[in-house]
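Why do we care about 3D structure at all? Because function follows from shape, and shape follows, mostly, from sequence. That is the central idea of this module. The next example makes it concrete: a single protein chain, its amino acid sequence, and then its structure expressed as tokens.
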Amino acid sequence: MDRNWQNGGASHRQNGADETGFHSGNVQPEILPPAEQGESGEPYYRPYQSGEPPVVRQQKPTRWAAAPATYLLMAINGLVFLGMMLSGVSFIAPTVEQLVRWGANNGTLVLQYGEWWRLITAMFVHVGIIHIATNMWCLWNLGLLAEPLMGPLGVFCAYIFTGFAGNLLSIAVHPGVPGGPHSIVGAGASGAVFGLAGVLIILLKSPLLPMPRAELKRLRWSVIQFALLNFAIGLYTAFGPSPVQIDNMAHLGGFLSGLAFGVPLVPRIGAQRETYLRRRRVAIAGMTFALALLAYGLRSYWLTTK
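And the structure:
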């Protein structure tokens, strides 16, 4: 999940001077994987008829071949974390200054200094070994379920779009600009993980999926439980006596954008190839336009009307 630190407005590094004034919190695991997965990793391709067993495609792809985008995203996260450790960053409790240097999200730096790239880099930066381990476990579980339904490009785009949207909502609520609320520093893949959960909740409802309804309902309920449980954990850390600080806005933004991204999609399994590709193009183009428009509107609101 995304971790955050409150600050009174981040100051940018200029002329070699470090003017940051962040205060970090403790690192604790705070994201739980879905309770269940499907009984078979193989996709069904024949429409299911009541009273007869579903037909399974007879092939045994390797896990990499079955979910290349999932493993690619996990590898990028892992390499970034390895680079952080090799550069001297603590693998247990990195400082806020170190996280900012590696690309963590912050409203002041994004809105006032134009560092919009942080909305992407922050989803690959993690706050210690426990943080990345829990996030990668959840990404692995959801990615292996999502990739047969969305394809590698669909999973990769969902991760980037929903992670971006989560970080965008975070700086919208915590802009750190004059006249606005204080900023925070956030990092982690969990906005994107919540986004994948949102997409799956939509796709697993599709009548095109050639799987028994009971199995689809079970899988969908498992994903819903995952989202509800981790939202509850986030609310507890916000209002309860917890030393952990979680960027709940990043989670909410990722989840809502995942639902939106999933609406125009149809599952790769069960749909006509042309329909699947056309719907995916619509979803990608629509999300790109919507996020660009929201980012422009957010910047205009905080910097020109305040």
